[in-house]
Design goal:
Strand 1, helix 1 (19-28) and strand 2 form a beta-alpha-beta unit. The mean pLDDT is 83. This protein has helices spanning 19-28, 41-44, and strands at residues 10-14, 35-39. It is 30% helix and 21% strand. It has 2 helices and 2 strands; from the N terminus they run E-H-E-H. The protein has 47 residues and is α+β, with helices and mostly antiparallel strands. The protein has a two-stranded parallel sheet with strand order 1-2.
Length: 47
């Protein structure tokens, strides 16, 4: 929460099955508009 006050482009990486839970959590603590959620699988294609 503290870090989100000073950073603009925060991304949290979660396992593919945990994305919905993380999005819900970020909404509950009012950080959904400041932090992007992505899965580990999203970066495997780039390698």
């Amino acid at each position: 929460t503290e870090l989100s006050r000073y950073c603009d482009n925060l991304v949290v990486l979660v396992p593919r099955g945990g994305m919905e839970e993380m999005i819900t959590l970020l909404h509950m603590i009012n950080l959904a508009d400041r932090i992007t959620v992505d899965s580990y699988d999203g970066y495997e294609d780039e390698e």
